[in-house]
Specification:
- The chain is α/β, with parallel strands linked by helices.
- The protein has a single domain, classed as Divalent-metal-dependent TIM barrel enzymes (TIM Barrel), CATH 3.20.20.
- The protein has eleven helices and ten strands.
- β8 and β9 form a beta hairpin.
- α3 packs across α4, α6 runs parallel beside α8 and α8 packs across α10.
- The longest helix is centred in the first third of the chain and has 21 residues.
- It starts with a strand and ends with a helix.
Length: 285
């Protein structure tokens, strides 16, 4: 089963008078969606009671939960104190995931703008391993850490780098953000073959089992020479990439990814558009 959902809460959710993320699972289910990525990107600011309630509503409404960890995590900071704090933020996020019934947390690894790339990648992988050991001791061993492919050239997060990092530990599984791949590659995803090449790289490096239920982000994206500039909505067709190409690969490969839409303001509505595109293609093939 391919699942679709938003990254956070759409503007319409609030315009309709809703105020709490506890209401999101039922709202999404009514729309016809079945995934939700709760946002801790500006900090882990949710208590156990609220997280439990969101998790209960998600289970009741068959919504697959994931959590996006804070943007300011930097596993390759040249400052040891910041690296230690980054590990702590991930543990905090995994704790919330446990309360919420989420099995995956999405993590931005950080930046290598001030350090050597090789050192940054090796240090990040080592620290992720340390986090997973600590998570085991805290009863969080069932939560997967999903380092994200990032869109800016100075970030630790090219497709090759994320694959290399995930090869170091089976409990690291990539978040494949196709907008970021497109932006980092200066508009590199323009055909079914381009998307299939990405999936083949993952399968050849990590194995088909780890790719079968891949965690993905999708939206249109504007980019500059430095990579990602801004995410756009599905109707902003002057920007790529095109979801139809990915949908064809998903169907051909018989994989069941979670597709989280990161469109600006309309992420739930656009997630539904992606789901309708996919369902229409399934019926036509």
């Amino acid at each position: 089963m391919v699942r679709f959902g938003p990254s956070g809460n759409s503007e319409n959710f609030y315009k309709e008078g809703r105020k709490s993320s506890v209401e999101m699972p039922a709202w999404l289910s009514k729309m016809g969606l079945d995934a939700y990525e709760y946002q801790c990107n500006r900090g882990v600011n949710i208590g156990k009671d609220m997280a439990n309630k969101i998790g209960e509503e998600a289970e009741k409404n068959n919504i697959f939960m994931s959590i996006h960890a804070p943007y300011y995590i930097n596993m390759a900071s040249p400052e040891e104190e910041k690296r230690i704090k980054s590990k702590g933020y991930i543990i905090e996020c995994m704790t919330v995931a446990k309360w919420m019934g989420a099995k995956r947390i999405v993590v931005h690894t950080g930046s290598y703008s001030k350090v050597d790339k090789k050192w940054a990648l090796e240090t990040s992988a080592r620290l992720f391993g340390e986090v997973l050991k600590e998570a085991d001791s805290l009863g969080l061993g069932d939560i997967m850490i999903c380092p994200e492919v990032l869109g800016k050239n100075n970030q630790i997060g090219s497709l090759d780098e994320i694959i290399e990092m995930c090869r170091t530990n089976e409990r690291l599984s990539p978040t494949i953000d196709f907008a970021h791949i497109h932006a980092r590659g200066q508009g590199s995803l323009n055909s079914v073959e381009d998307f299939e090449r990405v999936i083949n790289m993952l399968e050849n490096s990590l194995g088909t089992d780890r790719v079968r239920e891949l965690h993905c982000h999708f939206s249109r994206v504007e980019f500059t020479k430095g990579g990602e500039k801004k995410h756009w909505n599905i109707d902003d067709t002057q920007f790529g990439p095109e979801f139809e190409y990915l949908a064809e690969v998903i169907i051909k490969k018989k994989i069941n990814p979670v597709i989280i839409c990161e469109s600006r303001a309309n992420m739930a509505e656009d997630a539904l558009k992606l789901k309708k595109i996919y369902n229409k293609m399934v019926k036509g093939m």
